Amino acid sequence: MSTSKKIPFSLLELATVGEGISINQTFQNSLDLAQQAEKFGYKRFWLAEHHNMISIASSATSVLIGYIAGGTSTIRVGSGGIMLPNHSPLIVAEQFGTLANLYPDRIDLGLGRAPGTDQVTAQAIRSDRMHSVYRFPEEIEKIQQYFSKDNASAKVRAPVAEGVQVPIYVLGSSPDSAHLAAAKGLPYVFASHFATVHLLEALKIYYNEFQPSQFLEKPYTTAAVNVFAADSQSKAEDISTSGLRMMLSVLTGKISYLQPAIKMDAELREVQSHPALQQMLKYSFVGDPQSVKQQTLEFLELTGVDELMVVGNIYDHKDRVRSFELFSEVMKAINQ
Q1: What does the alpha-carbon distance between residue 137 and residue 152 come to, in Å, rounded to a whole number?
Q2: Vertex 293 angle, CA 276 and 230, to 5°
Q3: Which residues contact 195 (CB under 8 A, 6 or more apart)?
Q4: What is the pLDDT of residue 128?
Q5: Bridge partners of 79?
Q6: Considering the domain boundaries, does residue 180 fall inside one?
Q7: Per the domain annotation, does 92 fall within a domain?
Q8: What Cα–Cα distance (Å) separates residue 102 from each residue in 106, 161, 165, 219?
Q9: Residue 29 has pLDDT above 50, yes or no
Q10: Which residue, 49, 73, 134, 183, has most beta carbons within 10 Å?
Q11: Which CATH number is 130's domain given?
Q12: C-alpha span between 102 and 335 (Å, rounded)
């Protein structure tokens, strides 16, 4: 069984910090993962933006993008995403214009409007951010203008960005983002690796309301999913316990470092069955290659998305690389 269209597959990286693992080593592991993903055939390697979380080191997103792009050669590298209300559109254009000049035709700019942190920290990042939240569509337009050759005659310019090709993606976890991406004729990326409730509704809105633009002729959708793949079902379930406990810590507000994997047991299965966790982890593919392939095909049939972006909060680096390697093999089989 395969799909009727080729489905590119990409990777979302949070630079998750494991218990007893330094931030420096975390960054080295991220680069190694990107290098392996390039070999495995992943199309993109995107980095998230989070703040004030001991378990996530991807806070200076554009800096990390430069580090990853500099250590790879063909894979596209981008933001999943830049939380735009935290930033000045001019600075974003300058940063990504610089990156795209250094690494031509390899840089993507995913934009979201969530803070990527708690409200107190969001206020510390930018005191007027709520004004920017409400002006999110206009802020995107400002970035597009800075990237335009036509901006050469403007009073405020980002010369390093003018005429540079950096595709912009709208990120979202609710119907609001779907309306916006459709109206602007931009590709749409949904965070279904944790926000599952509105996925199908948002995709329907985007497809129905899409307006062709100079950037995109027809709708293009990407959905994010969690993947915990291993050579055996039991091994996959065991390595998934790190991600499970991480999500539990988020729900309980007791965020800690990513914990080493433990044996999946009856107690953890009971925790996993909690409605809130079940909803959050609804699109998590856990298992051996055959099982993950079946779950992936069912998701593709359900959503009809054009691209998959996978996340895997796995403690052991070798297990994590192997999981993404197995998923690449699954996708290559699906795309045959």
Answers
A1: 22
A2: 75
A3: 173, 174
A4: 78
A5: 47, 109
A6: yes
A7: yes
A8: 9, 11, 12, 29
A9: yes
A10: 49
A11: 3.20.20.30
A12: 32
Q: Could you tell me if residue 275 is inside a domain? A: no
Q: List helix spans (H) across the chain.
A: 23-40, 61-70, 89-102, 119-125, 129-134, 136-147, 175-184, 199-209, 233-252, 266-272, 275-280, 289-303, 317-334
pLDDT band per the 50, 70, 90 thresholds, residue 1? very low
Domain hosting residue 64, numbered range: 9-235+284-334
Torsion of CA 223, 58, 62, 24, to 10 degrees: -140
Per-residue model confidence (pLDDT) at position 132 = 78
Residue in this structure with the two tokens 């047991």, named with its chain if needed: 265
Cα-Cα-Cα-Cα torsion 56, 61, 63, 67, nearest 10 degrees, comes to 70
Q: Report the chain's terminal Cα–Cα distance, integer Å.
A: 9
The secondary structure of residue 260, as a DSSP letter, is P
The residue to which tokens 């051996």 are assigned? 288
The pairing of strands 221-229 and 284-287 is: parallel
What distance in Å separates the CA atoms of residue 193 and residue 173, rounded to the nearest whole number?
10
Bridge partner residues of 229 (DSSP): 287
User: Which tokens belong to 165?
Assistant: 């090709």
Structure tokens at 258: 């990513």
Q: Are 19 and 313 in contact (CB under 8 A)?
A: no
Total number of residues shown for the chain: 336
**Look-up: residue for tokens 């996708």?**
331
Query: How far apart are the C-alpha atoms of 62 and 284, rounded to whole Å?
Result: 28
**Residues 22 and 28 sit within 8 Å (Cβ to Cβ):** no
Q: Which amino acid is at 331?
A: M
pLDDT in tens, 135-187: 999 999 999 999 999 999 999 999 999 999 999 999 999 999 999 999 999 99
**What is the sign, positive or negative, of the torsion defined by CA atoms of 167, 67, 86, 201?**
positive
Q: Give the CA count within 13 Å in the CB-facing half-sphere of 226.
A: 28
Q: Whose structure tokens read 């002729």?
A: 217
**How many Å apart are CA 200 and CA 307, to the nearest integer?**
15
Q: How many structural domains are present in the chain?
A: 1
Note the pTM of the prediction, 2 decimals: 0.95
The answer to whether position 277 is within a domain reads no
